[in-house]
Amino acid sequence: MENYKKSKIVEKPSPLPFTNLPSDIIEMKVKDGSKIRNLMGYAIGKMESDSVRQILFTGSGKAISKTITCVEIMKRRLTGLHQITKVLFKQTEEIWEPIVPEAGLDALTVKRNIPAICILLSKDALDSQEPGYQAPGSFGAFWIETLKAESQGQIKRKQGGGRGAGRMGKHPRSVGGRGESYKKP
Predict the structure, then answer these.
(1) Which whole number is the average pLDDT over 163-184?
(2) How far is residue 78's CA from residue 75's CA, in Å, rounded to a whole number?
(3) What's the CA gap between 119 and 18, in Å, rounded?
(4) Which residue would you say has higher pLDDT here, 176 or 134?
(5) Are the beta carbons of 118 and 58 closer than 8 angstroms?
(6) pLDDT tens digits for 111-154?
């Protein structure tokens, strides 16, 4: 590949995984270089108006985590949002051209399947039987249970019984003979 340079990347168009979406739905295409502040300013402004009922966040590759972050911020700011999440793959083609065209090398086309995520947020109720559905506020109950489990685990850890080294410590520093440990003056 040292004799080639990447000339362009073509993203194959793929249909959205949701059916029956309104034609005027706002689609937030999150890219790796997108600023969350800019995305959220626009998206929250639109969702706070009464005319907009649904918004769609899409991201692929390195932008997946940023897409999820935007959705979580949106759900915290605007309570009562229903969510459906779909995970899919988008196909891209990278076209590599030879650095020295006279060398007799042909152009290369590399096809890649890149992970992508589409998250639909709606003020109105969505189909709860749809895979990937999350009801409004359902994350609250999950975190309450998680925190309870963690706090019980911390109580058990404080009681000991683990694989600790005991009284002497893992590596006792001996100055003199056996069993003597070094104590700071």
Answers:
(1) 57
(2) 5
(3) 9
(4) 134
(5) yes
(6) 999 999 999 999 999 999 999 999 998 666 666 777 778 877 76
Chain centroid to CA 26: 20
CA distance 162 to 184: 28
Pairing of strands 82-98, 108-122: antiparallel
Please count the other Cβ atoms lying within 10 Å of the Cβ belonging to residue 96: 18
b (16+ CB within 10 A) / e for 49-69: eeebebbbbbbbeebbebbbb
pLDDT value of residue 40: 95
Distance (Å) of CA 90 to CA 59, 60, 75:
10, 8, 26
The answer to whether residues 85 and 147 touch, using CB atoms and an 8 Å cutoff, is no
Confidence of residue 20 (pLDDT cuts 50, 70, 90): confident
- The SS3 of residue 8 is strand
CA distance 61 to 68: 12
pLDDT digits (tens, 9 = 90+) for 83-104: 999 999 999 999 999 998 888 8
Q: Tell me which H or E stretch contains 115.
A: strand 108-122
Question: What is the rounded CA–CA span in Å between residue 62 and residue 40?
Answer: 18
